[in-house]
Specification:
Elements lengths: L1 E8 L3 H14 L3 E4 L2 H7 L3 E11 L5 H14 L4 E6 L5 H9 L4 E4 H6 L2 H11 L2 E5 L13 E4 L6 E5 L7 H6 L5 E5 L3 H9 L6 H27 L7 H22 L5 H6 L12 H15 L4 H10 L9 H8 L8 H8 L1 H11 L6 H8 L21 H16 L10 H14 L6 H12 L1 H9 L6
The structure holds fe (ii) ion.
Length: 464
């Protein structure tokens, strides 16, 4: 019996095409089934299915779609179930379907025309396991969650430690060269508890705390982004506010941890947050932005982090072809219509957040809306005057550029963050007009000489 990543249940060839295209792009193992009944019959042959996409697009009554959802839930209680519903149905209908056990409800038009499917499936399937550093496990301690090893050849996860096992030195040594183990995402809370058991002020503990907070921010941001993209929770403003609050708290804690470690830039760069080159990068960009804001005394670092986290939420509204080009770092290859769409993403981001009534300040709104404006008015979407662009927005764009250059893409080597920073400082000097002169004068020394300035600015004690 084998496990599969994705099961697509539909008899519509266009539906199947859309879902399997996404599966191929992300390398998911998938199977298609023409109906729930066939899935019921053949689905038993699989040990597990991580995600199911169920086509309810032809059903015009919400109670029928809800019934089908219930059947799918009974068959695959542990799976993440995405229901694609008829676009004529109303948000109330979406809520009924959601209440029947769907993990996410998507309108048919969104399924075809937006990038929500890419985001959700990549997060649910590819991020079902989260990496933790080998050095964050302590010999002689017991783990109450399983640990996995990612096999390099077939990219499968192999369970190497069961819950209740005592971590031994020789076990850690065996995997020393790999450097990382994986946990199931649902065990993150157990990992947090495990890690809290070894808090101390030594350098290893500070780094461990920093990585932990990164994971927590990443997880809470994904939940927030999924909530924003879920039609059925449109009226749940209280939930949005709560998730926003959690993100804010983890952002603050992460920044606090980053200001206590010796090489925060390296820590951010080596953190294993989403590496699909799209919205998944937001937590890394937010971390760079919070750090740079704090070092350069530009804006309120906490607000800058939130602005950076939310600036690209509008990516989810973009068409599949536009978002594919963003992911592949081929923005220059977009045709006119795609460029137009891409240039509106800051507006989409702001509108999405406003429609959820997220409780953020006017300053954060400006950061989101201006995150691609340039001092030479060649930016987008509004090409506003240089003196109207807030410095925090320029800072977020700078960190986005930094992350874009430093992130690890599939099949590429990890780059040295300091080399990337020097490059960025060089490019950025040669492209006068992109940023305001005052902003450049302020940022250049920080980008070029991080370590000394960091220590002076943050009053940090060097850790050996
Ligand atoms: Fe953006």
């Amino acid at each position: 019996m084998k496990s599969i990543d994705l099961a697509v249940v539909s008899s519509d060839s266009r539906f199947l095409q859309r879902a399997t295209d996404v599966a191929r792009v992300f390398g998911f193992e998938y199977e298609t089934f023409e109906s729930v009944d066939v899935f019921f019959e053949k689905g038993e042959a699989f040990k597990g299915v991580t995600c199911i996409i169920l086509d309810c697009g032809k059903i015009e009554k919400s109670n029928e779609a809800a019934g089908m959802t219930q059947v799918a839930c009974q068959m695959a209680a542990d799976s993440y179930i995405i229901i694609v519903m008829n676009s004529k149905l109303r948000p109330e209908d979406a809520r009924i379907i959601k209440a029947s056990g769907a993990s996410l409800v998507m309108m048919e038009n969104e399924f075809y025309a937006s990038s929500k499917l890419e985001f959700v499936t990549s997060q649910v399937i590819r991020s079902a396991y989260i990496p933790v550093k080998n050095v964050d496990l302590v010999p002689g301690t017991e783990v109450d969650f399983p640990l996995f090893h990612l096999m390099p050849v077939n990219k499968k996860f192999l369970k190497v430690a069961k819950p209740g096992v005592i971590i031994r030195e020789d076990f850690l040594q065996k995997y020393q060269d790999v450097g990382e183990f994986y946990l199931r995402r649902q065990d993150l809370a157990k990992w947090v508890e495990y890690s809290h058991g070894f808090e101390a002020d030594d350098s290893q503990s500070l780094l461990r705390k920093c990585r932990l907070r990164f994971l927590q921010l990443n997880q809470s941001f994904l939940e927030l982004a999924l909530m924003i993209s879920d039609q059925s929770s449109a009226a749940s403003f209280a939930l949005g506010k709560e998730m926003y609050g959690t993100c804010e708290a983890f952002a603050t804690e992460l920044l606090d941890s980053l200001t206590h470690v010796q090489n925060p830039w390296v820590v951010i760069n080596s953190s294993a947050v989403g590496d699909f080159g799209s919205l998944e990068r937001a937590p890394a960009i937010a971390a760079y932005a919070g750090l740079l804001s704090s070092l350069s005394k530009t804006g309120d670092p906490k607000e800058v982090m939130i602005g950076a986290l939310l600036a690209d939420v509008g990516y989810l509204e973009l068409s599949p072809s536009t978002s594919a080009k963003i992911r592949e770092n081929r923005v220059q290859d977009m045709h006119d219509e795609e460029k137009m769409e891409y240039s509106k993403h800051p507006i989409y981001s702001l509108n999405q957040c406003l429609s959820r009534k997220l409780p953020f300040s006017e300053a954060i709104k400006s950061m989101i809306l201006q995150s691609h404006e340039r001092a030479d008015q060649k930016g987008f979407p509004n090409k506003i005057n240089s003196d109207k662009i807030v410095e925090e927005a320029m800072l977020i764009r700078l960190c986005w550029e930094l992350d874009n250059a430093a992130q690890i893409r599939l099949g590429e080597e990890r780059r040295d963050i300091n080399a990337v920073k020097n490059e960025i400082a060089g490019d950025y000097l040669s492209s006068m007009g992109s940023y305001s002169v005052g902003f450049m004068i302020k940022m250049q020394p920080i980008i070029l000489k991080p370590d000394e300035l960091e220590e002076k600015t943050l009053g940090k004690v060097r850790i050996h």
